[in-house]
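Colleagues,

For the teaching module next term, I've prepared a clean inverse folding example: a structure given as tokens, and then the sequence designed for it. I'd like students to try predicting residues themselves before seeing the answer, so please don't circulate the second half yet.
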């Protein structure tokens, strides 16, 4: 059986999860081809990241559910990530995580409890703690609804203008042209809002996952 190879997006996630705070700024190598775990560990050694950290991050990537980010016309408007814990997350740990979330996203957010489920949310940004057979799963998800609305409105206007020109090609076209121009502008604004947003959110999620994956959030003896 051939050894598992990770694509560029998976490699970036692994290095973001494995990096300690002093290595958080290390850029993941973009090879344009798959890299094996051994290759990732060798690269990690060169920048001071322990092979065990790389292996643990890769394992957490395999365990996490592969949810597909939302998209419109192929443009990514949503970001998702997840981390598996082989133990339950205690109440003090959850409170520490909520504090970190509020600092990271500069928002108080809302905390909800539903039986064994916990959730922190701020608009479309949600972090959920779900029980599993062996512990807990942290699920991070968000969607840029403002950009989604702009893209959808722009596309609708552009289609309407095109339809009007096809139905009555000899009619005065100033109105249709204006509608098409407005639709194009809305599409451009929607795309601009998404520029950099998805990568920033993914980096924030991966940093949070890396800080809490497989480790006690609170120092020993606090609980």
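(Answer key — instructors only)
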């Amino acid at each position: 059986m051939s050894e598992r190879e990770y694509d560029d997006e998976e490699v970036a996630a692994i290095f973001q999860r494995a990096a300690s705070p002093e290595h958080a700024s290390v850029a993941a190598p973009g090879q344009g081809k798959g890299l094996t775990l051994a290759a990732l560990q060798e690269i990690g050694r060169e920048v001071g990241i322990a092979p065990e950290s790389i292996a643990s991050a890769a394992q957490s990537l395999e365990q996490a559910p592969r949810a597909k980010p939302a998209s419109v016309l192929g443009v990514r408007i949503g970001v998702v990530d997840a981390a598996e814990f082989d133990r339950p997350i205690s109440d003090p740990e959850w409170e520490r995580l909520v504090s970190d979330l509020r600092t990271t996203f500069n928002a108080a957010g809302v905390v909800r409890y539903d039986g064994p489920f916990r959730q922190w949310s701020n608009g479309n940004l949600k972090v959920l703690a779900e029980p599993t057979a062996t512990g807990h799963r942290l699920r991070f998800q968000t969607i840029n609804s403002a950009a989604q609305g702009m893209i959808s409105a722009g596309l609708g206007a552009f289609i309407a203008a095109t339809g009007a020109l096809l139905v009555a090609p000899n009619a005065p076209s100033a109105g249709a042209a204006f509608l098409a121009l407005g639709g194009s502008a809305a599409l451009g604004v929607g795309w601009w809002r998404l520029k950099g947003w998805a990568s920033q959110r993914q980096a924030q999620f991966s940093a949070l996952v890396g800080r809490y994956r497989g480790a006690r959030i609170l120092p020993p003896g606090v609980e």
